[in-house]
Design goal:
Pfam families: AIRS, AIRS_C
Strand content: 15-25%
Structural class: alpha+beta
InterPro entries: HypE, PurM-like_C_dom, PurM-like_C_sf, PurM-like_N, PurM-like_N_sf
Domain PurM-like N-terminal: 43-152
CATH architecture of the largest domain: Alpha-Beta Complex
Number of strands: 14
Domain PurM-like C-terminal: 165-316
Protein name: Hydrogenase expression/formation protein hypE
Number of helices: 8
């Protein structure tokens, strides 16, 4: 029988999990297919014919616009900077397009754009061009922001989602789950806002700190939509490896764990905006941790697992009681409108 629900776009198609992958494979990539889109889908892409230049585009529809630790303006800058950084690039220019809903208060719009400008200047990233559109009341949710970032590769760094190798150690730069729970708590007025603050911040300086390791930095990824589970599953699939995590090593703040327990969420599936995972050879792991901890963004960096096992494309976790379970790619949208 026909299943009309599968022929419509769902919120889950924007979650960064399996439904997103299906949308890309069945609709987006076939329509845009070309040599430049083949291979693993990265956070940013090399510009053909321009050695060392990297480009990325991102859209931001977070609700609410303001949340503990950030807002849609600063988040747009941080998300764009971080997509460039995950390809080993430093940001050099930004463009911004803003879609505004009729009736939005000018003071609120001014606050969003001021925050965006402040974040861009703090990242050393000039806003060189942009566009502004206004749509009828009810045709948007106050404001949507689309950015394009241009970056230049840091010499020696060429991380890729397909670069993880057997024997690598998996490093995480900081605690997980704060952004998603902070946004959800504010949106639904759940009362966690006093304890949980988004980790939204730029990570390009942390990546720059890893430059002395050069090509030993095999893979970098920031676990945003779909959380750490989605990021690691994508890497395992693109690299053709098995990733084994240590549950006792995962840095999940107590407040986040409690909030997720109440809401029935898995912290591994909750979005982050200020941490990264890095894959480096086991013999360079301590060097990488030392370099990451030299930066404020990586002061809490830890080792959370290894690349090993015989089941390529799988992520498993060794539990605190000695068992083992599979960490699946999220299916749909647990937390819509999170970035």
């Amino acid at each position: 029988m026909p299943r009309p629900d599968l022929e419509q776009v769902l919120l889950g198609h924007g979650a960064g999990g399996r439904l997103t992958a299906e949308l890309l494979d069945s609709v987006v990539l076939p329509a845009l297919a070309g040599e430049e889109l083949r291979g693993p889908l990265e956070d940013a892409a090399d510009i053909p014919g321009e050695d060392g230049l990297v480009i990325t585009t991102d859209g931001f529809v977070v609700s609410p616009l303001f949340f503990p630790g950030g807002d849609i303006g600063s988040l747009a800058v941080h998300g764009t900077v971080n997509d460039l950084a995950m390809r080993g690039a430093e940001p050099i220019a930004l463009t911004v397009a803003v879609v505004i809903e009729e009736g939005m208060e000018l003071d609120e719009l001014r606050a969003v754009l001021t925050s965006l400008g402040t974040a861009a200047r703090a990242a050393g990233l000039p806003v060189l061009a942009g566009d502004t559109k206004v749509v009828q009341r009810g045709h948007a949710d106050k404001v949507f922001i689309t950015t394009t970032g241009l970056g230049r590769r840091i010499p020696g760094l060429r991380p890729s989602a397909a670069g993880a190798r057997d024997g690598d150690t998996v490093l995480l730069s900081g605690p997980i789950g704060a952004h998603g729970t902070a946004v959800l708590s504010t949106r639904e007025q759940l009362g966690f806002t006093a304890d949980i603050v988004s980790d939204s911040r730029p990570l390009h300086r942390l990546v720059r700190a890893l430059a002395p390791l050069g090509e030993a930095v095999h893979t970098l990824r920031d676990p945003t939509r779909g959380g750490l589970a989605a990021a690691l599953n994508e890497i395992a699939l693109d690299s053709g490896v098995q990733i084994t995590l240590d549950e006792t090593a995962l840095p999940i703040p107590g407040q986040v764990a409690a909030a997720c327990g109440i809401l029935g969420l898995d912290p591994l599936h909750v979005a982050n905006e200020g941490c990264l995972v890095a894959f480096v050879p086991h013999e360079r792991a301590q060097d990488a941790l030392r370099l990451m901890r030299s930066r404020p963004e990586g002061v809490s960096a830890v080792s959370i697992g290894q690349v090993n096992g015989t089941r390529p494309g799988r992520v498993v976790i060794r539990t605190a009681i000695g068992g083992e379970r599979t960490v699946d790619m999220p299916l749909g949208e647990q937390l819509p409108r999170i970035c």
